[in-house]
């Protein structure tokens, strides 16, 4: 079986990981992770306390080499959520950076220190890496955000990790010469699987910033970095900084690829970055259970507001409420995205009922609503549970209204939801963070602004003003918290 990380097996001396002033080549990572793999081998599962550090990356790679499923744990997890994840996944061990104080839920487990030091055989002979596990073997158990109940553990097989990363190699022309820069958390798909395992599978390298900072982004992209991964909040900060930071503009202009994910990047931020740098940010679409489904291709048209076309090996369809296929490519007809392919998870841990409910005839129900443009590009309009508004007989996606609102000069942040209405069924509600708190745009002005660019029935009927929108660690707006 071909290895998940060929450059580790070949013990390449090219750079692999850099976190601050700590760094490892692929050969050094093979030694460090190989030594740690012997210590965790035989465990049923291990938890990794996923701080944004070199030790986290070494710990995850070690477990994958040993064929032990990894449960990445968010260090910012609340007590109830953490207790649920530990009880549900029942890890045998916890891997963490030396010296880190663990919460009681994990401190009771046997602990293995995630060090970046190898322990080769006498004479400098490296410890051989373990045999490659089966492609169907579990690689990671990643917990969902738990917006509709306790988080569910999505069991991701090794084939899903390999399939997604190889499909992105095709879509992004990702090679061993690429140096990825990012500051994403390492407890979820974006930062860990794409942002760490992706460069390792390609034989390239990643430079993790620890925390996001536009000066650090500029520094790394002007000293060898070729790719930048971020979430919309990060790119918004980039867009805000660009007018007064020519060094940042030059750095971004020189990057080979700028990728945004985990939530939709507002169109006005796309435009500001493109105007300042001449480079366009591309978006991709995925989720915990499916890894990556679509992406704008590096050799395609980077159109703002779309998440591109299905990746190699991924089948995608839109369906109506009765699961009948929506065949329209008109940019208007909304349907739920369903996908199937080698990128899918195998099950929700300990939840056969939830696993069965998530599929229909082998297709995974994503719960995301989208339209398809005439050229096949997919545009996400929101979540079925929170972003599909049924008003006056129309199905309205919140996402396109949010993008239009964000183009208004008086709007800094915007979210759109639906509320019960005795006449319309649901009315469109806009939640606005004004650009200037002392002079917020009026509800009438915002309604006219939307109606001038979209159909009149999509205008907000109610406007509510906030100081900030509630967001999670990945920058996604928590819409249920708005109504709460």
Any overview of this molecule?
With 484 residues, the protein is of the alpha/beta class. Among the domains are: 6-199, ANL, N-terminal domain (Rossmann fold, 3-Layer(aba) Sandwich), CATH 3.40.50.12780; 388-483, ANL, C-terminal domain (GMP Synthetase, Chain A, domain 3). It contains 15 helices and 26 strands. The protein has a nine-stranded mixed sheet with strand order 2-1-10-9-11-12-13-14-15, sandwiched between helices. Strands 16, 17, 19, 20 and 21 form a five-stranded antiparallel sheet that branches. Helix 2 crosses helix 3. The protein is globular.
Would you kindly provide a brief summary of this structure?
Residues 9-349 form the AMP-dependent synthetase/ligase domain. The chain has 484 residues and is an alpha/beta fold.
Set out the fold topology.
Elements: H1 6-9, E1 15-19, E2 22-25, H2 26-40, E3 46-49, H3 54-66, E4 70-73, H4 79-89, E5 93-96, H5 104-107, E6 111-113, E7 138-143, E8 153-157, H6 158-172, E9 179-182, H7 189-202, E10 205-208, H8 214-221, E11 227-230, H9 232-241, H10 246-254, E12 257-260, H11 267-277, E13 282-287, E14 291-295, E15 309-310, E16 315-319, E17 335-340, E18 347-348, H12 352-357, E19 359-360, E20 363-372, E21 378-383, E22 388-391, E23 394-397, H13 398-406, E24 411-421, E25 425-434, H14 443-453, E26 462-465, H15 479-483
Helix pairs in contact: 2-3, 6-7, 8-10, 9-11
């Amino acid at each position: 079986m071909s290895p998940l990380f060929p450059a580790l097996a070949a013990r390449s001396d090219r750079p692999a990981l850099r976190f601050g002033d700590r760094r490892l080549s692929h050969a050094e990572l093979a030694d460090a992770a190989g030594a740690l793999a012997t210590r965790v081998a035989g465990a049923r599962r291990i938890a990794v306390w996923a701080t944004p550090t070199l030790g986290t990356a070494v710990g995850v790679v070690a477990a994958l080499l040993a064929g032990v499923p990894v449960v990445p744990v968010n260090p910012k997890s609340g007590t109830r959520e953490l207790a649920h994840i530990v009880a549900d996944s029942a890890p045998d061990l916890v891997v963490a950076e030396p010296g880190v104080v663990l919460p009681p839920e994990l401190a009771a487990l046997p602990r293995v220190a995630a060090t970046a030091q190898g322990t080769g055989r006498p004479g400098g002979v490296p410890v051989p890496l373990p045999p490659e596990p089966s492609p169907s073997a579990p690689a990671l158990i990643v917990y969902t955000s738990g917006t509709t109940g306790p988080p569910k553990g999505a069991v991701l097989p090794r084939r899903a990790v390999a399939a997604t990363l190889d499909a992105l190699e095709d879509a992004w022309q990702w090679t061993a010469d690429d140096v990825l820069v990012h500051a994403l958390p390492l407890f979820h798909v974006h930062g860990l699987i794409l942002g760490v395992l992706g460069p390792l599978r390609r034989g390239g390298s990643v430079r993790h910033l620890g925390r996001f900072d536009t000066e650090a982004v500029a520094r790394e992209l002007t000293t060898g970095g070729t790719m930048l991964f971020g979430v919309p909040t990060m790119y918004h900060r980039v867009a805000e900084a660009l007018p007064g930071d020519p060094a940042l503009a030059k750095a971004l202009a020189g990057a080979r690829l700028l990728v945004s994910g985990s939530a939709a990047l507002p169109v006005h931020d796309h435009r500001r970055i493109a105007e300042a740098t001449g480079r366009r940010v591309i978006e991709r679409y995925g989720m915990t259970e499916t890894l990556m489904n679509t992406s704008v291709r590096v050799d395609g048209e980077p159109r703002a507001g779309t998440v591109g076309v299905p990746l190699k090996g991924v089948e995608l369809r839109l369906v109506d409420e009765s699961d009948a296929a929506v065949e329209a490519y008109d940019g208007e007809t909304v349907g739920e995205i369903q996908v199937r392919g080698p990128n899918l998870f195998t099950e929700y841990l300990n939840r056969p009922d939830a696993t069965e409910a998530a599929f229909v005839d082998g297709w995974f129900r994503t719960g995301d609503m989208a339209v398809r443009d005439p050229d096949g590009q997919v545009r996400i309009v929101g979540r079925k549970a929170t972003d599909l508004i049924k008003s006056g007989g129309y199905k309205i996606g919140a996402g396109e209204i949010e993008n239009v609102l964000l183009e208004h000069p008086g709007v800094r942040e915007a979210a759109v939801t639906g509320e019960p209405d005795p006449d319309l069924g649901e009315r469109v509600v806009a939640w606005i963070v004004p650009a200037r708190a002392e002079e917020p745009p009026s509800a009438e002005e915002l309604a006219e602004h939307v109606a001038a660019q979209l159909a009149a029935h999509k205008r907000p009927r109610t406007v509510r003003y906030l100081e900030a929108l509630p967001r999670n660690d990945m920058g996604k707006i928590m819409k249920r918290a708005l109504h709460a």
